[in-house]
């Protein structure tokens, strides 16, 4: 069953943050992920307006998505944004029936 990595972020330092985002597509692809949305137009319909960038990535399984996030290569890339270049909230969610 597919799973989705959903992230929302606030970019504080675009130059440093780009060092992170330049590496991410290759890392995601190596873990079987496919970027469905990355940046682009958005409208906040409900909730805080702190975040200005939204990302949705599909993985074949929940486990592959979590493994990507926890991989040493992702951790090394994320160090650029974790140093203060950005603030991010990330979740992994299974596709599936919402009636469970």
Automatic annotation (TrEMBL):
Q: Which organism is it from?
A: Rhodoplanes roseus
Give residue ranges for domain DUF1330.
Answer: 2-93
Matching entries from InterPro entries are given as: Dimeric_a/b-barrel, DUF1330
The record, for Pfam families, names:
DUF1330
Q: Which domain of life is it from?
A: Bacteria
- Gene3D superfamilies to which the protein is assigned, alphabetical: 3.30.70.100
**What's the source species' lineage?**
Bacteria, Pseudomonadati, Pseudomonadota, Alphaproteobacteria, Hyphomicrobiales
Question: What protein is this chain from?
Answer: DUF1330 domain-containing protein
């Amino acid at each position: 069953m597919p799973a989705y990595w959903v992230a929302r972020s606030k970019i504080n330092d675009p130059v440093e943050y780009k060092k992170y985002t330049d590496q991410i597509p290759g890392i995601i692809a190596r873990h079987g992920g496919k970027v469905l949305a990355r940046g682009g137009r958005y409208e906040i319909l409900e909730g805080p307006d702190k975040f200005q960038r939204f990302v949705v990535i599909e993985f074949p399984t929940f486990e592959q998505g979590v493994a990507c996030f926890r991989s040493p290569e992702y951790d090394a890339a994320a160090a650029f944004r974790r140093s203060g270049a950005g603030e991010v909230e990330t979740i992994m969610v299974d596709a599936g029936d919402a009636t469970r």
